[in-house]
Amino acid sequence: MSDDITFKVADYVVYPAHGVGQITDEEVQVIGGMELKVFVISFEREKMILRVPVRRAKAAGLRHLSSRSEVEKVLTTLQGRAKSGRGMWSRRAQEYEGKINSGNIISIAEVVRDLHKNVDDPDRSYSERIIYEAALGRLAGEYAAVENIDTKQAIERLVDFLKDKEAA
Q1: Exposed, middle or buried: residue 118 (CB in 10 Å: 0-12, 13-18, 19+)?
Q2: Which residue ranges form the domains of the chain, and what is each CATH number?
């Protein structure tokens, strides 16, 4: 990826801590007497608007949607062997949260893959379920945007894909 990543109004982008959003505007704000050019990003799912300084967009982790080839890598990751959970849950939970908030679609797919195995376990902890759902939601949001489908369909496809792996 080149250093001069350019974004335009109407682009769909991924912000690491919030997932997929759309740049709705570019505006200039005056902060402390200085003019600051910002991207206005709308996150439909969270009903949230975020303003990211244009000069800090890359440093903040803002990126374009994944390519189709990256989505293929995600599906390959989901098909892979789940990493067994060793060690204390609190440490693993921190690691999973870090992966989700990294904005890296492959890392998020790893969390979904690793936590999916216990999805129907009634003894599953509340925090594990919340982390799994957060990862699945983030992954489905980008998958839906790339495939041009709604998030509900994306979740169904990803879960079906995981179930196909289990049946194999």
Answers
A1: middle
A2: 12-64 (2.40.10.170), 68-167 (1.20.58.1290)
What pLDDT, on the 0 to 100 scale, is given for residue 94?
A: 94
- Can you read off the two tokens belonging to residue 70? 């990256």
Place of tokens 């179930």: 163
CA atoms within 13 A on the CB side of 9: 6
Backbone angles phi, psi at 166, to 5 degrees: -65, -35
Please give the helix or strand (H or E) that residue 21 lies within, else none: strand 19-31
79-128 pLDDT, tens digit each: 888 887 778 889 999 999 999 999 899 999 999 999 998 777 878 889 99
pTM over 0.90: no
Number of C-alpha atoms within 13 angstroms, CB side, residue 30?
Answer: 1
Edge to edge, what strands does the sheet with 34-43 contain?
A: 48-53, 34-43, 19-31, 12-15, 63-64
